[in-house]
């Protein structure tokens, strides 16, 4: 144990020292693939958004697995070119991981004699996707750098890579998360905001994780890619307020289009794009659509219609300025990725992301 501790400390120091650039208030975001190592830019993470230092840093795998990010990117390229929606599914996995006992890959665990899988929770069941892609990344990483790269870091790398490959921003990604030895079905049911949330609800869910209004709006911008099932927005079409009327904030022609995808009875698994204009491209159309009453989920539209000054203003700014949105998205992704990571000697690096070792 003592020699393991010494090795760990030495590697950590080496990796820290080898990182050369510091980023100031914002993560430097740049287009392309970032650096070859696990870090994506080689800068030391300064806490972004005012959170205390999480113990993670971009160069964490610089010595132990410099190919980590390249391996992740090569699997992602293949998976996303086969099915562009996979980028969205992988981005969402990181979110559903981080909001439940922190970014510790708990979301990836299957049922175990002592706990139930988060995959069975209401927000996740028949909904979360991409587990096979994570398995493939993990098995490639185990071949090259056995027992080194955690499943929690794989989720973070896959979320960033998916954003980049869909046309979105790149950012310096702090790494060094370790994997949990348990999952929380209850935590998953309690902590992931439902799609019919009010603006106040949304903010409460985010604040519980140490995130603020800016994070709420910028991270909701992830809905610029991907799909949602009818069951998640049906209420808006037929009975928004218990009076058998549609949601009045829903633009008329969009409402009619949605009704054809999502009939009053049945069709609950039919899907519709969250951003109908460019569902596979990471851009700021999501915010432009909200501005014209074409947000798909209640939780999307209330960012504007919820009468909360700050979020309304942000939606307008992000609709006007995609560079501003990209910058804030990158910043908030780092912040979300810093939610209660397991570091040091706690937790483990799973060999198979679906099971504890
Ligand atoms: C603000 C609160 C949020 C709510 C209420 C919410 C809700 C939802 C719902 C209901 C779906 C559709 C699921 C289904 O039909 O099976 C969805 C999809 C998605 N969400 Fe969110 N979400 C939120 C925030 C986020 C955040 C923070 C991210 C990532 C940073 C994210 C990324 C995604 C993506 C990319 C998809 C599409 C997934 C796919 O196509 O497979 N969401 N979300």
TrEMBL record:
Range of residues in the leader sequence: 1-25
Annotated positions binding Ca(2+) 2: 224, 275, 283
Cofactor note: Binds 1 heme b (iron(II)-protoporphyrin IX) group per subunit.
Disulphide bridges: 65-145, 98-103, 151-353, 230-262
Residues marked Transition state stabilizer (site): 92
Residue sites binding substrate per the record: 193
Record: residues binding heme b: 223
Swiss-Prot/TrEMBL keywords: Calcium, Disulfide bond, Glycoprotein, Heme, Hydrogen peroxide, Iron, Metal-binding, Oxidoreductase, Peroxidase, Secreted, Signal
Reaction catalyzed: 2 a phenolic donor + H2O2 = 2 a phenolic radical donor + 2 H2O
UniProt-annotated location(s): Secreted
Family label: Belongs to the peroxidase family. Ascorbate peroxidase subfamily. Belongs to the peroxidase family. Classical plant (class III) peroxidase subfamily.
Protein name listed in UniProt: Peroxidase
């Amino acid at each position: 144990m003592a020699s393991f501790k010494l090795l760990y400390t030495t590697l950590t120091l080496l990796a820290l020292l080898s990182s050369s650039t510091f980023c100031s208030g914002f993560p430097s975001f740049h287009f392309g693939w970032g650096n070859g190592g696990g870090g994506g830019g080689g800068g030391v993470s300064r806490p972004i958004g005012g959170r205390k230092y999480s113990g993670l840093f971009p160069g964490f795998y610089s010595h132990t697995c410099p190919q980590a990010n390249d391996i992740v990117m090569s699997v992602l390229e293949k998976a996303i070119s086969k099915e562009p929606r996979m980028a969205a599914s992988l981005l969402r996995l990181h979110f559903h991981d981080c909001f439940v006992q922190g970014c510790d890959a708990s979301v990836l665990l299957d049922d175990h004699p002592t706990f139930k899988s988060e995959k069975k929770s209401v927000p996740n069941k028949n909904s979360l996707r991409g587990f096979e892609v994570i398995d493939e990344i993990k098995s490639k990483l185990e071949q090259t750098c056995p027992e080194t790269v955690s499943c929690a870091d794989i989720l973070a790398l896959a979320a960033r890579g998916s954003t980049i490959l869909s046309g979105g921003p790149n950012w310096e990604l702090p790494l060094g998360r370790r994997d949990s030895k348990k999952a929380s079905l209850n935590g998953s049911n309690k902590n992931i905001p439902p799609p019919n949330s009010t603006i106040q609800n949304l903010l409460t869910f985010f604040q519980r994780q140490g995130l603020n209004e800016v994070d709420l709006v910028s991270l909701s911008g992830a809905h610029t890619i991907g799909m949602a099932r009818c069951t998640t927005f049906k209420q808006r079409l037929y009975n928004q307020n218990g009076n058998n009327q549609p949601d009045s904030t829903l633009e008329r022609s969009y409402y009619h289009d949605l009704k054809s995808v999502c009939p009053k009875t049945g069709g609950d698994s039919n899907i519709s794009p969250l951003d109908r204009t460019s569902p596979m491209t990471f851009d700021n159309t999501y915010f432009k659509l909200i501005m014209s009453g074409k947000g798909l989920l209640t939780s999307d539209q209330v960012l504007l219609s919820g009468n909360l000054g700050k979020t309304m203003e942000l939606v307008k700014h992000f609709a006007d300025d995609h560079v501003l949105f990209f910058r804030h998205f990158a910043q908030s992704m780092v912040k979300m990725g810093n939610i209660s990571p397991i570091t040091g000697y706690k937790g483990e690096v799973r060999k198979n992301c679906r099971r504890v070792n």
